[in-house]
Amino acid sequence: MAIKINDDALHALKIAFSYMPKAIEVTKYEYGERYQQVLDHIEAVREILLINDVDPDEVYGEIHPDDSPNSSY
Predict the structure, then answer these.
(1) By the 8 A CB rule, do 60 and 18 touch?
(2) Is the CB of residue 52 less than 8 Å from the CB of residue 5?
(3) What pLDDT score was predicted for residue 30?
(4) What is the pTM of this model?
(5) pLDDT digits (tens, 9 = 90+) for 2-19
(6) 3-class SS at 27?
(7) What's the rounded Cα separation, in Å, for the pair 20 and 49?
(8) In the chain, how long is the greatest CA-to-CA distance?
(9) Are 44 and 38 in contact (CB under 8 A)?
(10) CA gap 6, 12 in Å, rounded
């Protein structure tokens, strides 16, 4: 079983994740030979967020509420 991180560390991870590129934006053209490593890093952060009951797709809106569109649901 994975261990959850404390609230301060989780908030810091959310901030960092909000500035990471979306996986769909990571291409070999843009990132060269390290594109797979970038994708692996994004997935590692997403996994930790999920372990901590955080929806990675909602993080940007939580961290940047004034810069995100209103929910459509």
Answers:
(1) yes
(2) yes
(3) 94
(4) 0.84
(5) 789 999 999 999 999 999
(6) coil
(7) 14
(8) 39
(9) no
(10) 10
Tokens of 21: 């590129």
Both tokens of residue 72?
């459509």
CB 5 within 8 A of CB 13: yes
Residue type, 71: S
Identify residue 68 by its one-letter amino acid code. S
Give the tens place of pLDDT for each residue, 40-68: 999 999 999 999 999 999 999 999 999 86
13/35 Cα distance (integer angstroms): 21
Which alpha helices (H) appear in the chain, and where do they start and end? 7-19, 28-31, 35-51, 59-63
* Residue at token pair 């995100």: 68
